[in-house]
Amino acid sequence: MISRKVCFIVSCSFLFLTGCWDQVDIEERGFIIGSAVDMMGKKENGEYELRLTNQFVIPSTLGAPTQGGGDSDAFTNISATGESMFAISREMAQLTSRSPYWEHLKIIIVSKEIAETKNLFAKIMDIFLRNPSMRRSIKVIVADEDAKNVLDVKPTNEKLPALYIESVMENSFKTASALEPVRVGQVHAYLLNQNSYVIPKITTSGEGIQYEGAAVFHGYDNKMVGMLDGEETKGLNLLTGNAKEGAINIELDDNILTYELEDVKSNLSIDTKDKNNIHISVKVKVEGSIAETFGTENIIKKKTLDEVEKQVKDELEKIINHTIKKAQTELNADIFGIGDMIKERHYDLWQQIKNEWDHGESYFAKSTFHVAVNAEVRATGSSDQTKKHWSER
Amino acid sequence: MKWFEYGDEKISHREIMIAIPSMVIGVGILSLPRSIAGATTGSDGWISLLVIGVFFVLLTWIIAKIASSFPNQSFLSYTSLILTKPVAIVFTFLYTIVSIMIAAYEVREISNIAKQYLFDRTPVEVISLIFLLVVVYAVAGSRAGIFRLNMMFLPIIILVALAVFVFNLGWFRLGNLLPVFETSLSDYVKSFSTGITSYVGFGIILFYISLAEKPEKTPRFAVIGMGIPIVVYILLYITCLGVFGHSVTSNLLYPTIELAKEIDIPGGFFERVESVFFVIWIMAIFNTTVMALDIAILALSSIFKSKDKMRLILILSPLVYVVAMYPKDIEGIGVLGNIVGYSAIILTFTVTVLLGVVGKLRRVKQGD
């Protein structure tokens, strides 16, 4: 009896132990670490011809850190074109010996043309939000040129362009003129809501890339309406309090003095008494130190410090006001998240104005910003004067 | 082959306390934040979860009070005392059906989720079958063993829920929780109707209290046990909203799983934390399924006075499999889930009210 039972169990187990449906050897997986999407043109049937470029890692050329990996590239970029992203990626499976494996995707680069076409950006993002093997922490960037070019850069100190770009983005906190990286999970929220949003911008420069500025999208049609350059992005980061570090140049007695931002806090309050003229008061408090000066003043004197603080304050207010002006007049896009704040704190008012916030009636453009910066010099470095300009006396 | 027998088939009141959350926490919470957020505005969903929860805690207390006033009597025997024998048999039989359906739903839903996230090419039928075989193995053993498994798994499950919360604090944005108290009354009612199905399962105490050593202590512990899922649900719901925001939460199929996928332990030495979450949550669903099947067997054997547990298992488990495989697509699974949820709630509610009211009117006491 027992042996018959055992026989039964053993023969049953053959059913399940014969193999694993989902087994793919790691050697046969093509790890994708970066994707770039370009638009090749519009077809007659109204659909767009898209080109997807995937960056595959070639593990054998990476080698151990001490051995070095030889001279060949550690990656290969494979492009394919088609109408839908999924169809393209299936087609790509025929072009490579390894089956595409998306779990380690780090960055998605979208070309400017796609961003400028109404709703196309949103359509392309669908597959990245739908595929369960992809993560919501993939970073999204808009390229100021062909997105494929960005994946083709050959950085000298890194082997994989996609990882190089990712680490450049991670370092964005060093300068206030780049946005914090935007993750695809956040993009999901942007696409579902109708508020405007910004996505970081990237351009190639020589061997490497430049990560600076931002692409501005209108939320209601998910279309890029313009770009912010580095200085305007700085204004945006200062207003929202996202700037962590950065440098501001001012002039002190005709000599350049560089003020280093060390801590930025911003505080926004909204006065919604009149919906046709919403008052937004922005209080920015910056703390920092004097990083470099070309002049010869005794900078630890109170008078000099006051002068520096005043100049920094004026400079920052100028930068912030310039960004606000651009957002209100040129772009008519609420990139500061004011709409979100009204929704969160004045829900009834938001219900009235949400459909005409930054288009149509444009309550955003009609609102008034009051910017007040408070700058403090916390430290001056380890020297008072470093030089005396005898020749100028 | 010998079955290992535990010394006692009695359970303590603490084990009742653990069994309730083990039964209630199942596949529901994986998609619960979506349906709650879809019906409410801002972060008001927690109010719905709390209100429904408190209502069910009250119901649990009443059930425990009634059941514990008939110590060592099975559901069938005390229901026969209060509501006459035929009615009792009908209710016991209905409980068998609902329990089979609960087990089937859990099996199908977890197989579907496992297929989506873990086994891309393995057929759902095979995943379900293997899961069900493990469940059958657990049910075939001693009942006390099931309770000991609960005792072992529940702390781990709660720990993982807490870990999901703590490791997501970095992505948490308080502004996402605003605005508050903007939901209209009719929306609250709508969210109640979607929320109640995730609290299904507390009815097990109708059957299990008869096994308790000290029945008089069970009401208090049952209430504490029912409190645990409320806290876990609200915690995970608020985390979902804080991390994803309202609009994304209401558009993710399984927000709680996505929450686990968001976890990114700094340093990069441990990635893909969701695999751990999956393992633990499958344990939670395993417990739910095991107890559902066990209740079905307990109920049926009390009707037929059958001592042969194995025979009942061999009859019921194919039934569970057939019901589990019945829905064709994700929409069908949702319909099955709703049928299971509502029928279980309505059945337990009716039984409780009938037992309570008729018991009071007829002044049925033990020994009458």
UniProtKB/TrEMBL annotation, chain A:
PROSITE patterns: PROKAR_LIPOPROTEIN. Residues 212-381 form the Spore germination GerAC-like C-terminal domain. Gene3D superfamilies: Nutrient germinant receptor protein C, domain 1, Nutrient germinant receptor protein C, domain 3. InterPro entries: GerAC_N (IPR057336), Spore_GerAC-like (IPR008844), Spore_GerAC-like_C (IPR046953), Spore_GerAC_C_sf (IPR038501). One of its GO terms (biological process) is spore germination. This is Germination protein GerLC. It is found in: Membrane. One of its GO terms (cellular component) is membrane. The keyword Lipoprotein applies. Belongs to the GerABKC lipoprotein family. Residues 22-203 form the Spore germination protein N-terminal domain.
TrEMBL record, chain B:
The chain crosses the membrane at residues 16-33, 45-63, 75-102, 122-140, 152-172, 192-209, 221-244, 276-300, 312-327, 339-358. Its main location: membrane. InterPro entries: Spore_GerAB. It is a multi-pass membrane protein. PANTHER family: SPORE GERMINATION PROTEIN A2. Belongs to the amino acid-polyamine-organocation (APC) superfamily. Spore germination protein (SGP) (TC 2.A.3.9) family. This is Germination protein GerLB. The lineage of its organism: Bacteria, Bacillati, Bacillota, Bacilli, Bacillales.
